[in-house]
Amino acid sequence: MMKKIIIILVVIALVGVAAKMIINPPPDTGSNIILAVKENSEGPVTVTVAPHGWENGVNTWDFDITLDTHSEELNTDLVAMSLLMDDQGKVFKPLSWEGDPPGGHHRRGILKFKTISPRPKSIELKIKNVGGVTERSFRWTF
């Protein structure tokens, strides 16, 4: 009999904790932020950007970038022609490009930026002069 009472009390306590978490979920620490993949197909070059590595404590914010065309050489220096802007208008230059060198019709790599702290409300990646397009803009809101 005593065993049944203890089991019933444990079940009631667990249900109470679960209900409290549903009503008052823990605050979002931003540790599992997933940002959408964006694509721009203006002109003869398609640029696809997939942000990743947005967990707390990382040193860089990374953008996996793919450039595809069938009509011209992809010679743009993405470090020189890219910038990241926060919601306050502050501009950040890339740290590096880790990927395919200039040339060819298909390029892929990771454009790395130093993390912005505190995390802004939104960011915008701008890439200039790819495929005759003056500027391509990719924006995410947290």
CATH superfamily: Domain of unknown function DUF4426
CATH class wording: Mainly Beta
Number of domains: 1
Helix-strand sequence? HEEEEEEEEE
Supply the helix-strand structural class. Answer: alpha+beta
Task: Please list the strands of the largest sheet in the order they lie side by side.
Answer: 1-2-3-7-6
CATH architecture: Sandwich
Brief write-up:
The protein is an alpha+beta fold.
Could you name the key traits of this structure?
five-stranded antiparallel β-sheet; 15% helix; 142 residues; alpha+beta; 40% strand; elongated
Itemize the secondary structure elements and their pairings:
Layout: H1 2-23, E1 38-40, E2 46-52, E3 60-68, E4 82-86, E5 91-92, E6 96-99, E7 106-114, E8 122-130, E9 133-141
Antiparallel strand pairs: 1-2, 2-3, 3-7, 4-5, 4-8, 6-7, 8-9
